Amino acid sequence: YQIAVRGTGTFHFRAWVGATNPATGEFRWLGFPDMIKIEATKRWRTYAGTFRLPEFDTATYQISGKVSAAIVVEEKHQIVIDEFSISRPKSPSAERPEPRCAIGPLFDM
Fold this sequence. Notes:
Distance between the termini: 17 Å
Helix content: under 10%
Radius of gyration: 16 Å
């Protein structure tokens, strides 16, 4: 991913991971993990990195091929974003990178 962020507060990009019980068809939410979490600053900063879903217990409920996501901004936080892009890894070795969240800027704008 790559994103430019400025403001006050925290930017969250959160997955909404739902799953279905194949035996009963029952749906339930497995979790809402932060895939990207950035503390904004008053100046524009650009962040880039990789992420993947954490492991979930899928013994009873199976994750479908699609996962929803949301940008979350907490009450009284003011976040401005620009140039938010997400792409799949280009090489087979990059398909299972170590999970991580954004922890710092790559460069200032």
